[in-house]
Amino acid sequence: MRAAIASGLAAVVLIISSCDRIPHIYHKIENESKRSFWETSARKGDIEGAYKAGKLNCCGEETVKDDASALNNFCKGAQGWHKPSMFEIGKMYLNEGMPEGTVIPYDEALAYTYFKLASGGGNPKVDWYINDLEPKLDANERAHAEAMLLDFPNIPCELTR
Fold first, then answer.
1. I need a labelling partner for 145 at 20 to 30 A (CA). Which of 13, 66, 87, 139 fits?
2. pLDDT tens across 22-36, in order?
3. For the stretch 62-95, what's the b/e string if a residue is b when 16 or more beta carbons lie within 10 angstroms of its beta carbon?
4. Is 57 exposed, middle or buried (0-12, 13-18, 19+ CB in 10 A)?
5. CA angle (41 as vertex; 39, 47 as ends), nearest 5
6. Residue 68: pLDDT band by 50, 70, 90 thresholds?
7. DSSP 134
8. Which long-range contacts (CB under 8 A, 24 or more apart) does 125-131 make?
9. CA distance 142 to 149
């Protein structure tokens, strides 16, 4: 009888101790579902959906991070003149917040270009990045950035794997 009670108690303790993991698992499933929804929306041409898919790929809580997918989704948004997407692309080309070993190349001229495109969108951080990068660019990089601004949206953005 004692063995049965001990076994039952052990089962209850095991169930209770795993309860703290249930919300984590639930949130992970919920966030992966959101990411799938927004990626589908982005494939259908939804610019805001592309931005939200990008955010979930790069920065979403309890989701698998995929920096290339994040960049590609932000690029879809940027091609529709979505300023927050342009801002995120600029940060990605500075490797800000990117995991070590990211596939996103570090490119100050391209980051500067996307920050310039994002300016006027009501985000005060955009001007900070522009002012920070401007003195770092040499004359060739600045000329390249200006040429890319004129050629938008036909400038580098998406990554292929």
1. 66
2. 544 444 555 566 767
3. ebeebbbbbbbbbbbbbbeebbbbbbbbbbbbbb
4. buried
5. 95
6. confident
7. G
8. 125/87, 126/87, 126/90, 129/90, 129/91, 129/94
9. 11
**Residue 79 tokens, joined:** 């091609």
Q: What is the pTM of this model?
A: 0.75
Distance CA 102, CA 23 (A): 30
Neighbouring CB atoms inside 10 A of 107's CB total: 18
Q: What tokens appear for 69 in the block?
A: 């997918």
Amino acid (one-letter) located at 128: W
Q: How many CB atoms lie within 10 A of CB 109?
A: 20
DSSP secondary structure code for residue 106 in this structure: P
